[in-house]
Amino acid sequence: MISVVRRWLPRLAETGVGLAALLAVTAAPQIAQATIAPFRYTPPRRELPVTPDLFGSIAIKGGHAPQEVRWRQVMHEDLSGPGPWRAVVDRVRGLAPDERIQTINSWVNHRIQYADDRQVYGVEDHWASASESLERGRGDCEDYAIAKLELLREAGVPAGDLYLMVVQDLVARQAHALAAVWSQGRFVILDSRSDEIQSAGGAADYRPIMTLGDDAVWVHGFALAAGPSAPASR
User: Fold this and answer.
1) Helix extents (H) in the chain
2) Which of 22, 93, 169, 171 has its CA 20 to 30 A from that of 32?
C-alpha cells in the first residue's frame, strides 16, 4: 500500500533545490559591451508542467522519490497493442476533453475490483501498470489512478498534463491516491471512489502529500495561518 510513502518524504526534502541556487541559475546573464557581435544561443523551448498547487497546498518541487523509477516505467508502457482497454481508448479519442476524462474514470472504476497489493502480488507495495491491473481486474488505489493516467495518455492527452497524487484521507485517516489532469486551463481530479470527475477545489477531505508528474516530483506544504500580534514592548 502507499502508506510507505511517508518514509520517502525526508529524502525528498533533502534533495530540494534552494531558492538562492534557483535564482542564481535562472538569472539573466549580463553581457558586457564588445567590439564583435555576441554569439546568441537560444535553447529549444520546452513547456514546463503546471505546478500542482491543489487542495489549498503549495507544491514544492523536490528531488527524487524511491517509487519514481517505477512511475516512469508505467507511464511509458506501450498500450498500442490489443488488450481489454483497446475499445474504450479508441472510442474516447474523438470526444471532448471532459467527456473523454469522465469516460475513462468511470470505465476504470468499474473494470478494477479493489484488492491490496498483498492479495494480488504478495508484496507490501507494488505500483502496477495499466496492463497488469486491467488484465487481472484487481488493484488498489494507486493502481486505479495509474491505469486512468496511462489510458488518457494513450487516448491523446499529453503526458505533461497527467499527475499522480498521494494524499491523506482526513476522514478515513489513511493514505490514498488520485489522478489529476490539467484540462482546459484547470485541474480535474479522478478518484476511484467516484465516477464523476471533480474540481480541484471540491475534495476538501484530502490533504496532498506528494505529486509525481511527467518529469518532476513535488511535495506539498501549507501556508501558516497568521497568529495573534505580539504585544508591543514597553
Assistant:
1) 9-14, 19-26, 68-75, 86-92, 97-111, 117-121, 130-136, 141-154
2) 22
